[in-house]
Amino acid sequence: MSDVKLCPGRRRPAAGRRYNAPMTTFLAGIDFNAPSHEVARLLIGVTVLVDGVGGRIVETEAYDREDPASHTYNGPTARNASMFGPPAHAYVYRSYGIHWCLNFVCREEGHGAGVLIRAIEPTHGIDVMRERRGLDDPRLLCSGPGRVCQALGITREHNGEALWLPPFDLLPRAAAPDVAIVSGPRIGISKAMETPWRFGVARSPFLSKPFRA
Questions:
Q1: What is the CATH number of the domain that holds 163?
Q2: What is the domain extent for residue 57?
Q3: Residue 152 resides in a domain
Q4: 146-169 burial code (b ≥16 CB/10 A, e <16)
Q5: HEC states along the chain?
Q6: Which InterPro entries match (predicted)?
Q7: Is residue 14 part of a domain?
């Protein structure tokens, strides 16, 4: 059974509104048609803004249709429809019924891959983030996927939105960032726990959890 038959046409996710926008897959120097683990690594150092609030991405996780830990492993559902949508769009879901989580869709439409934004270093709109999060320490504002969404004001309403259109803005990382990018097992999953598809800036104080030495 093909993915195209499972996810026909230009369907919309529950809250998506921009599938009829002019398409692009190349943003911030990254081709979002690439495999998710490649995109996840390249996103480290990219600045993500939502209505002008955000910062540099310091931690990501990759997920793919062939990956038992992925939401798309068992095929399309109403919840994961956006992850089967076109690349360079947002997939937003609620974790444990509490926290929103932001993912960037990768690969061709119908494949079902994406990158979870686990942590960012706040650089834009820090006062807004502090108000939304109810704390002052910049290290704790966006150190975890739920915190990222709360600080950036991301909800289900952003699900299916194109990443090249407002309220999103992705800015390329420095040409030669002076940081070491490391990888390791993903966090909080019960399957494919050994897959080293978590990426981040080594020793960054803004990580959700330090990488093992």
A1: 3.10.300.10
A2: 26-172+180-201
A3: yes
A4: bbbbbbbbbeeebbbbbbbeeebb
A5: CCHHHHCCCCCCCCCCCCCCCCCCCEECCEECCCCHHHHHHHCCCCEEEECCEEEEEEEEEEECCCCCCCCCCCCCCCCCHHHHCCCCEEEEEEECCCEEEEEEEECCCCCCEEEEEEEEEEEECHHHHHHHHCCCCHHHHCECHHHHHHHHCCCHHHCCCECCCCCEEEECCCCCCCCCEEEECCCCCCCCCCCCCEEEECCCCCCCCCCCC
A6: Formyl_transferase-like_C_sf, MPG, MPG_sf
A7: no
Q: What is the pairing mode between strands 47-50 and 53-63? A: antiparallel
Q: Taking residues 59-72, what's their average pLDDT?
A: 93
The model's pLDDT over 67-98, given as tens digits with 9 standing for 90+, comes to: 988 999 889 999 999 999 999 999 999 998 89
User: Residues for the chain: how many in total?
Assistant: 213
Whole-angstrom distance, CA of residue 123 vs CA of residue 138: 9
Report the Cα 73 to chain-centroid distance in Å.
Answer: 17
Q: Up-side HSE of residue 105: CA atoms within 13 Å toward CB?
A: 31
pLDDT of residue 180: 92
Total number of domains in the chain: 1
What single letter denotes the amino acid at residue 195?
A: T
Q: Can you tell me the distance from the alpha carbon of 53 to that of 148, in angstroms, rounded to the nearest whole number?
A: 11
- The answer as to whether 58 is a domain residue is yes
Is there a domain that residue 74 lies in? yes
The amino acid present at 211, given as its one-letter code, is F
Which amino acid is located at 213 in the chain? A
